[in-house]
Amino acid sequence: MTMEQRNVAMSESDQRVEKITIPSDDTELTGNVYWPSGAPKSSVIIHGATGVPQMFYAKFARWVADQGHLCLTYDYRDFGASRRKSARESAATMSDWGLYDQQAAFDALLQLADTPKTHVIGHSLGGFMLPFHDNLDKVDKVTTVASGLVYWRDHRLPYVIQVILFWFLAIPFITRFKGYLPGKAIGLEDMPAGVYWQWRKWCTSRNFFEADIGTVLPPMNPNTYKGPIKIIGFTDDDTAPKISLDRLEGLYKDAQVTRRMIDPREYDLKDVGHLQAFASQNAAVWPEILDSP
């Protein structure tokens, strides 16, 4: 089916949203494609944050389509709409999400339509695994949002108390007892234990995932990403402070890097923090994300 036929086949009632299935390794992911009303100016993908389902990005994705771009969202394996096993039964890890699933979703994006440009938007986890991916020559621009290589000692009082509970006290005990991370109790979604333990390892290691490269993680792609990338942070983001964004920039040493540290007051916003850049109440910052770099 051609792009034009697919658009015609979708009724106005579904607002040009198409559900697709994406093969990834030995599983399948569920994604949503948000089609513009005319020929897409570009193809945009959103690699989501840890524990954040794709529906969180739906309003932003619709807005992206309204600006004339095709936009793909999806959920990582055994999570959200891609759940094939319960969080307790799943053996998924963070590297599965960041390597296999992100790569599979980008490859699916390339098959949806022949557009002039591709734009990778990575939120948190979605922003730091790209150097391991293939097809980097097919990425035209990148925007990372609230993404950093975070070390637990980066945090300051009072937020560091929550960090200690999350990495060293309450949450490790509860995750081991339940057999999965009960994310709903902390404002996220339930996740496989393997995702939590690898996330914990990286965020409690001064060199983040460096020790896993060559074992759990493959070597980074030697054909590095060389295009434009905009690294966006927020002054009120306690989870990914500026120093973690500095480390992230080091992963993109051959790219054309632009940094943007946004104070929500610039846009008369109350707060943005780590997760809320894609929330409708903070739509004032959306052009910063889409029209960058």
TrEMBL record:
* Domain AB hydrolase-1 residues, every copy: 44-129
Query: Which residues are listed as membrane-spanning?
Result: 157-175
A Pfam cross-reference name: Abhydrolase_1
Coiled coil region boundaries: none
Which keywords does this Swiss-Prot/TrEMBL entry list? Hydrolase, Membrane, Transmembrane, Transmembrane helix
- SUPFAM superfamilies per the record? alpha/beta-Hydrolases
Q: Which GO terms describe its molecular function?
A: hydrolase activity
Q: What is this protein called?
A: Alpha/beta hydrolase
Its source organism is Pseudovibrio japonicus
Q: Lineage from the top down?
A: Bacteria, Pseudomonadati, Pseudomonadota, Alphaproteobacteria, Hyphomicrobiales
